[in-house]
Amino acid sequence: RYASGQDMVSILQLVQNLMHGEEEEETSQAYRLQNVGEQGHMALLGHSLAAYISVLDRERLRKLTTRILSDTTLWLCRLFRYENGSAYYHEDDREGLLKICRLVIHTRYEDYTVEGFNVLYTKQPVIYISSAARTGLGRALCNQLGLPLSCLWRVPCNTMFGSQHQMDVALLDRLIKDDVEAGKLPLLLVANAGTPGAGHTDKLGRLKELCEQYNMWLHVEGVNLATLALGYVSSSVLAATKCDSMTLTLGSWLGLPAVPAVTLYRHEDPSLSLAAGLTSSQPVEKLRALPLWLSLQYLGHDGIVERIKHASQLSQRLLENLKNLDFIKTSVEDELSSPVVVFKFCREYSNRDQTSHAAQASTIQHPITSNERHIYDTFNQWLGEQLAQLVPASGVDVVELEDEGTCVRFSSLMTSAVLGTEIQDVDQLVDCLKMKIPVLTSTLQLREEFEQEVRRTVGLLYIEDLSWPGLGVVRYNYHSDGKNDDKQEKELEKINTELLKKLNELESDLTFSLGPEFGGQKNCVYIGMVTEDLDVSELVETIAATGREIEENSRLLENMTEVVRKGIQEAQLQLQRANEERLLEEGLLRQIPVVGSVLNWFSPFQALPKGRTFNLTAGSLESTESTYVSKAQGTGSTPPPTPTSSLAKQRLPGQKIFKRSLRSSDAFSETSSVSHCDDLEKMDQRPPTQSPGQEQGPLETEKTEEQKEVTQATDTEDAHTDKSPHDCVKVEEQESQR
């Protein structure tokens, strides 16, 4: 098929099918390509132009690539305040740090080019990296450099003073002194200007002094380096301009697709840079900067600054709104310029009175147990997923931090340019967060009550699952009667599956499910998030009653199946006896084929057909003679009613199941309902009245005449009867008793 080649249209169609695939119709709503603007098309155009430019003659190609590389490097150094720097352009954002490590090794070990790893063996190099750095960064460096993991030190962050995400400078100083005394060579320190998790910046000024003291190389990376292009830069980030090298990821900051990352560095020996791979003598390698060169010219200085400034304003807008929300705890290093906002739900935290909260922190806050922290992590995981689903343009995600646990992160510099995040998206994010906070607080508050109700209810088993974001997990216990484990497990699964189906059929706002696809408990009912008006006792009672109903129906079906099986066997035996009796009555001659036909013709034998019918209600066999005589089948007795749960609760109009009315109106609603029922009873007992203009029917006329005749007869009798006063008193007493 491919031997003769294909035309351009077929190849492009193949690429389109590979990009979208057959799942385009199914995932058309959830999946869409990034909307690249003109600046994105400029970056994509750079890759095509690089392929065309590479076919030029060598001299013209050398001049063009030198111009592109020098212009791009000069612009970036001026934009990010990095004077007298060189640039290395790379696709993988870790590749720049890897080349820097090679450069430092070549610089500190003069005979490394000749002797290789033997030089490293005599004096082991040490690389220091923060524990808050990207996961797997240190291991990747050691693997690429061929160094053992003993050459890597993960420096812990502060635990007592300052940010909990900053490198502990005092501890780093002690580690370096110990390594020097042990005969090792401190080589390089990797610091953060915006940690990947919380976006905090290390004390770069103090770290630079420490590196100069021990003749170490300082490399800085992080999202906060983008703020160097702004007019106002915090002093902690501004110190990054004095470091030995830094890595910039302009593609995510400016929303440019397929743009290489850039590592700016300062070094005076070009030969060592060439040996480390930071520079290349091949002109084609220099064309990596062409997409970035085109994009920078298209955006210009003002366009780049405006994009970074817009991202910072989005973070500030979100941070200001989060300060006014209760139960939301933020983790921001610099409230004036931090482009990363990390927040989490915490019921013990309040933002309305931060002064008193800070003053009484030592007395109010109680240590959170491991179970409580696990529950908070689960709820914040659910919160982050819900916000990302409701407001996809916000770009929020969930991050795991060492001290805070699971948090929701809004990193505008990494997502706003790509997703096109605007101010209204941030406001929508805050509105969604306001709607989710009451749900989180109510669910967290009712979890304990739900657990207590389930443990007090016979037939239900509470399953503790701290990783489930919801009210809780419950299982209906099947009362086995000496059954084996396999049959009991199947029956338990059947009952709980039917229970889940019945609960989902109810008209309620709750979500019932089988739990997560992986890692969940089997044969359980998982209840999702709830609101504050949930009636927990009614919910638990309904679950228990529905489970008992399903179990009783299952037992009734099993008993009926056994009765039917025995009835069929008995019917077969009785029919066999009836056939034998019929043979004896007819005689032997009637059984012979020819003789029997002649004999039946001369002397027909008439006998009523005998059959059996099985009465499911009584569970017994009955004869069918009465059916053939009366030409109709008997109905038998009425079957017993199916057991149902008696949970009919009086509700207000429009009130759903499992919802309790407001506490302030409970007494009023009960009083009004009782008085309303009394009024209905009085109206039922009151004789019907006739409206003034209503005509009387014939029956009503007859009744009226009869009443008149009775009244007249009574009056006549009373008139002709003489009664004493004593008799009148007796009559009045009798009437009062009546």
From TrEMBL:
Pfam families: PDXDC1-like_cen, PDXDC1-like_cen2, Pyridoxal_deC. Residues 676-685, 700-709, 717-738 have a biased composition (Basic and acidic residues). The keyword Cell inner membrane does not apply. Keywords: Coiled coil, Decarboxylase, Lyase, Pyridoxal phosphate. It comes from the Eukaryota. Residues 450-555 form the PDXDC1-like third domain. Residues 561-588 form a coiled coil. Residues 664-675 have a biased composition (Polar residues). Its cofactor is pyridoxal 5'-phosphate. The keyword Lyase applies. GO terms for biological process: carboxylic acid metabolic process. InterPro entries: GrpII_AminoAcid_Decarb, PDXDC1-like_2nd, PDXDC1-like_3rd, PyrdxlP-dep_de-COase, PyrdxlP-dep_Trfase, PyrdxlP-dep_Trfase_major. One of its GO terms (molecular function) is pyridoxal phosphate binding. Residues 627-738 are annotated as: Disordered. Residues 338-444 form the PDXDC1/PDXD2 second domain. Belongs to the group II decarboxylase family. This is Pyridoxal-dependent decarboxylase domain-containing protein 1.
